[in-house]
Design a protein that fits this description.
The complex is a heterodimer of chains A (431) and B (312). By secondary structure, chain A is an alpha/beta fold. Chain A is built from 20 helices and 14 strands. Chain B is mainly alpha-helical and 312 residues long. The two termini of chain B are 40 Å apart. The chains are: A alpha/beta (431), B mainly alpha (312). The interface between A and B is medium-sized, with 33 and 28 residues.
Chain lengths: 431, 312
């Protein structure tokens, strides 16, 4: 018994010493979380190093170990435990859900005033105002563009330097570049794909914000609260996209290890993706001979693209302590300067969120990034209440067509009803 | 009892060596009990509590909503088409097809393994190996084997001039494809339990039956089956529970772990996970776990009462 008491006494003393040491330390330590994405982690480490050099009283702990698939789980698990980030990077489409939970606090007017944000940042950032406040601010933004494989174009007798400029050319190129094993023209016989639609990746964005508008329709009402894509125009656009798999047989997400991998591995001619994919290609298949062009114009001759971004917000946890809040605001300010945006584009390939840095001439002339940069002027960022569930709705609609043989208009009606239910449920809770 | 209480209450109570040993034994045993209570029992009750709240893990306040979450479960189940409904339907399919097929195969294999002598250890290892291998690793390997066109299974089909199969990419084939893997992976465990049960049956019973001129079927029906009953009950309960809790193979083998295509493979547990951590509806997710808990409890009680009759 005596020995046990002695051990306990030692533990108590050690604990007390630790507490004293902690209290004496006047460094402010804040925690920053983002999901694990190699290039972004490296870029943020550089920014943190610069920030700490400028602000000797602040230490930033960078947690970037969580894989994308678990990021939301870990945030959800950390919050009730009273731990977690002071500054967190979230997909912009998640912001309403996190605001709804009271997890984020509004950005302080100083230095993030509305005038400052409107003047400095890309228009899609300015559109992210929600319930009268700005809740997060990004370092970088992305847009969608058209990736094409020059070698496959050449093999099919097409000019490798001229990507399809409109949707009709896109179809013609996809058909011309598809190669089948034998005479059977079906999905399972494809050895090289023209285009493989994949709604789970970026194609649901391409449909939502680009194709519908190019067919003369609109995805949502102006206030974003009513689904309007189940229109004649929406149906025409969805049918156009589905035809690649159901009629033209130019490819499928089910074969060749999925649509994105198939393009990265050089097995697909045409692919719609974001600038972040440039880094994936550089890492996994640096020899891929590809080009990036602006998305093809639609039947109405208009250009549109989908814009999105990962954006940094300040949490309730930081807000509880004035010193931490102050440090968090300083950090946020530091990682959203034009200089940070430039560092980001050079290391990650995502475009600076600040209009001045994005308008850089070198960037616009860049053979790869130029197309994304041009897209910023005509990009739309969907207002999502539950991005994952809303994406699932369109994945299911597409699967109903290609696997269940459902009529595209009917599938879209069903999707619109399901998505409207999600949107209504979100607003019903808030009012 | 009375004497002990007196001893403890009286000033003459002494720490004898034997008493000290007992106290220390309880102290050490308390650690796993405390751990179990805190990690398993407490969360179970907490789930009941959460299911009565609009529980969002990210929020500060979790308002009490009574039985609203359960009403939502009923509402979803009564819809013509809903993910929750698919989840329950698929989970029942996994159990109804998975458990009998797995146990029948395992029993047949165990009886064969019980007969052979030459290399019997090697065969037992081969059947047991999948069970000790990581489910996620096996599921990913199978995902590749199932691939259209380049997957091994389709290559074999092609070699045999049989038509290519889409396996995981079509709603009709996805669930059986996943089920096949789970049956195979868990079978080793059932085989070992059956083998142990078979070894317990005295050979004299079989010899006596042989003398009486019993057919192989009669021997199986009237000797093996009844005497194997404890093993069968045990496995039936355990495997039913494990199929009801199906999660990891579905996550690993479907696109982005979503239980597709078209919710054809999703399960109740996957639904719980996605609601809780993707949509942050932890209250609703908890009400689903409570329903699943009730299902497991009900099925177990029925199985125990029906199958564990005493055999003469």
């Amino acid at each position: 018994m005596r020995r046990l008491l002695a051990v306990l006494a030692v533990l108590v003393i050690l604990f007390a010493l630790g507490a004293v040491a902690g209290a004496q330390d006047d460094m402010v330590e804040i925690e920053y979380w983002q999901y694990n994405f190699g290039a972004r982690v490296d870029a943020m480490n550089m920014l943190i190093e610069q920030f700490e050099a400028e602000n000797p009283g602040i230490k930033v702990v960078h947690n970037s170990d969580i894989p994308y698939a678990n990021f939301r789980d870990e945030l959800a698990a950390s919050a009730p435990a009273g731990v977690g980030p002071d500054v967190v990077t979230l997909f912009y489409g998640w912001i309403p859900a996190f605001v709804d939970a009271g997890y984020l606090v509004p950005l302080p007017d100083d230095p993030f005033s509305e005038e400052f944000i409107l003047e400095t940042f890309s228009p899609m950032v300015a559109n992210s105002k929600f319930e009268g406040s700005y809740w997060a601010i990004p370092t970088a933004v992305r847009s969608l563009a058209l990736f094409w494989n020059k070698d496959i174009f050449a093999d099919a007798g097409l000019d490798p330097e001229s990507p399809p400029a409109n949707l009709d050319d896109f179809v013609a190129a996809a058909v011309a570049t598809t190669v089948y094993d034998g005479d059977m023209k079906d999905i399972l016989s494809i050895t090289r794909q023209g285009h493989a639609p994949a709604l789970a990746s970026q194609d649901h964005h391409w449909f939502r914000e680009v194709l519908i508008r190019q067919y003369g329709g609109a995805p949502y009402s102006d206030d974003g609260r009513t689904v309007t894509y189940n229109s004649e125009e929406g149906c025409a656009a969805f049918s156009w996209l589905a035809a690649f798999e159901t009629e033209l047989m130019t490819g499928s997400n089910d074969i060749l290890d999925g649509s994105t991998n198939a393009f990265v591995n050089g097995e697909t001619a045409l692919h719609v993706d974001g600038s972040f994919r440039v880094g994936t290609i550089a890492r996994n298949n640096p020899d891929l001979n590809y080009g990036v062009a602006e998305l093809p114009v639609g039947p109405n001759g208009e250009r549109h693209t989908f814009g999105s971004y990962w954006t940094h917000g300040i949490t309730r946890r930081a807000n509880d302590d004035p010193a931490r809040l102050d440090a968090a605001v300083k950090f946020l300010q530091f990682i959203t300067t034009p200089e940070a945006g430039t560092l980001w584009v050079n290391n990650v390939g995502e475009l600076p969120a600040q209009a001045t840095a994005a308008a850089d001439e070198g960037l616009q002339a860049d053979p790869i990034l130029g197309a994304f940069s041009a897209g910023l002027a005509y990009s739309h960022a969907t207002f999502f209440v539950d991005e994952s569930a809303q994406r699932q709705v369109l994945i299911d609609a597409f699967d109903n067509i290609r696997l269940g043989g459902m009529d595209p208009c009917e599938a879209l009606d069903e999707a619109a009803a399901a998505e409207q239910e999600l949107i209504d449920a979100f607003w019903a809770d808030r009012e | 009892m009375g004497r002990k209480a007196n001893a403890a209450g009286s000033p003459r109570f002494r720490w004898t060596l034997a008493r000290k040993k007992i106290v220390w034994a309880y102290i050490f045993l308390a650690i796993p009990i405390v751990f179990f209570a805190y990690i398993r029992i407490y969360p179970t009750f907490f789930a009941f509590q959460m299911s009565l709240h609009d529980y969002n893990p990210l929020a500060v306040e979790q308002p009490y909503v009574g039985l609203e979450n359960y009403e939502k479960v009923v509402e979803e189940l009564s819809k013509k088409k809903s993910v929750t409904k698919s989840a329950f339907r698929n989970t029942i399919s996994y159990v109804v097809f998975g458990v009998p097929i797995q146990l029948c195969l395992a029993l047949a294999i165990a009886m064969m393994l019980n007969e052979i002598r030459f290399m019997s250890t090697l065969y037992r290892i081969l059947f047991f190996l999948p069970f000790v291998t990581s489910t996620i690793a096996i599921a990913w390997v199978f995902r590749m084997l199932y691939q259209p066109r380049f997957g091994l299974f389709n290559v074999i089909l092609q070699f045999l001039s049989l038509p290519q199969q889409p396996f995981l990419t079509r709603p009709q084939q996805a669930l059986p494809s996943i089920l096949a893997l789970v049956i195979w992976q868990g079978m080793g465990f059932a085989v070992i339990i059956f083998l142990a049960g078979l070894k317990q049956i005295p050979r004299t019973y079989y010899e006596a039956a042989e003398v009486d001129g019993a057919s192989r079927w009669h021997t199986f029906r009237f000797i093996t089956m009844p005497l194997l009953n404890p093993s069968i009950v045990y496995l039936l309960v355990l495997q039913t529970i494990s199929f009801l809790r199906m999660f990891a193979p579905v996550v690993a083998m479907t696109e982005q772990g979503r239980g597709g295509p078209l919710d054809s493979t999703t399960t109740v547990v996957l639904r719980v996970y996605r609601e809780a951590f993707q949509s942050f509806n932890m209250g609703y997710a908890s009400s689903l776990t409570v329903v699943l808990f009730a299902m497991i409890l009900g099925v177990t009680i029925i199985q125990l009462s029906v199958t564990s009759r005493r055999i003469n």
